[in-house]
Structure to design on (72 residues):
């Protein structure tokens, strides 16, 4: 069971939430690390197009990441 609350910071924003199980958790984390390493210049800049944060922890204690992909 997954439960969370999302507060919209701007009424005019479009927010999409999705759920899928395309591959294992370890593959997901490896993919995120690859995204960050291939985009390292953008990831560390003020104009980052990829931001990775923690959404929550699973019941088993795994970190559930949230990826924000944007174009400033």
């Amino acid at each position: 069971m997954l439960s969370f609350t999302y507060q919209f910071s701007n009424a005019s924003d479009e927010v999409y939430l999705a759920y899928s199980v395309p591959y294992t958790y370890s593959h997901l984390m490896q993919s995120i690390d690859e995204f960050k390493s291939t985009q390292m210049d953008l990831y560390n800049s003020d104009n980052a197009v990829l931001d990775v944060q923690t959404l929550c922890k699973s019941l088993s204690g795994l970190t559930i990441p949230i990826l924000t992909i944007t174009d400033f």
User: Anything to note?
Assistant: The beta strands are 50-57, 63-69. The chain has a mean pLDDT of 82.
